Amino acid sequence: MSEAVVAEEYEREPVPKKAQKGWKSFLGMYAGEHAAGTEFVIGPLFLTTGVSAFDLLAGLFVGNLMAVLSWRFLTAEIGVKNRLTLYFQLEKICGKSLVKFYNIANGILFCFLAGSMLTVSATAVGIPFDMDMPKLTDVMPNGITWIIIVVILGAITTIIAAKGYETVSKAANWMSPIIIVGFVAAAIVAMGQLEIHSFSDFWNIWGEGKEPFPGQIKYTFWHVAIWSWFANAAMHVGMSDLSVFRYAKSAKSGWTTAAGMYVGHYIAWIAAALLYAVYLKTPEAINFLANGEAPSVAPGPLAYNAIGAFGVLVVLLAGWTTANPTIYRAGLAFQTLFPKMKSSGATIIAGVIATAAGIFPAFAMQLLDFVAVYGFILAPVGAIIVFDQFFSSKFDVSSNYAEKNKLNLNWAVLLAWALSVCGFYFYAKTNGVFLSFLTLPAWISCGVLFLVFSKIMQKKTS
Prior knowledge:
Helix content is 71%, strand content 0%. The chain is mostly helical. The radius of gyration is 22 Å and the shape is globular. This is Purine-cytosine permease.
């Protein structure tokens, strides 16, 4: 990659006016990224939790609305105001040493998420090879064919992501219409196979809900609403998408996330759940349940059984359009660890880690749990940025304190993050509380503690 292209990523400077983009650029990206590979897994996983029809439909509506509002009024506002990546913004507040630790955690978790999407795409590519598909409880790869397919997909995805934001955005715009059409077509075919002729027929698929599958917990309205709000917690309240919205001409571009939430996290999740409902009526699935096992949720075969080869293409592209920007984000995180390294080199490192993770199907098969943990760990760091941006002056706390005082480590940030995450995670585990329920309390706690510790430490310093 040439120096000219690398400079256009603006890793350590505000995005200039000439590089800013209109809302259409974000519409395609969010529609493509969130009507994507995760949807083919998450939709079926909701059925495994025994959720009722009302709890699923109403919970998804409320949770996705809260996610859109978080993007619009927090992430996009700060992104447009400062036009900096998450990582450079954190460096100003936290110091270089602490932000490096965060970037390692952030980058690795992004790689694991991207790896799970390579797993999704691999279930589509493996169909012509009659490959054994991963089961809900699988952790290890089930053969050399699986490994080869994931490695090839990972290499292609990494090459595209390494070309930068412009290429990632264009690719999403090209692919998202195909994916959306595929989800709708699959849902229509699945409804025919399930003999759905009215809304009451559709309602009865979930009805009042059932007992969760082996190894799953029972989901209620609150589980669905809170989980869907914080499914992308790292991106919105966690401020990761500052790296995206720094390119926006206006904070109103934050509304484009609704395309991802309601086409992807609403229609697509329900469409994928319908595909799984069809599969649950097959002798194979019935046999699994009779033996006390959870049937496979491999997206490739589910889509292929509904719409044939087009379904295979849709799953392949869906996994790819999620993995692609996720590897790009991970590359930005790793690039901050080695400022002299080109963005393309850091993205290649991220792609290698994501590919290695994709070989192991556990990340995709346990996606509900992984996404909850992922958001819970990363979201509170976003509170540091939000509280520093909006409340520091009101509490007489110096904003961007590490930059102004040339600190490598801002202890106020480290203590606030560690106490909030560790404290609430320990509470969740010892009391059996659904982890997503504690993401918001941990986020608020981190922001408040940051201001309190900053007030104390800055007063001592002065």
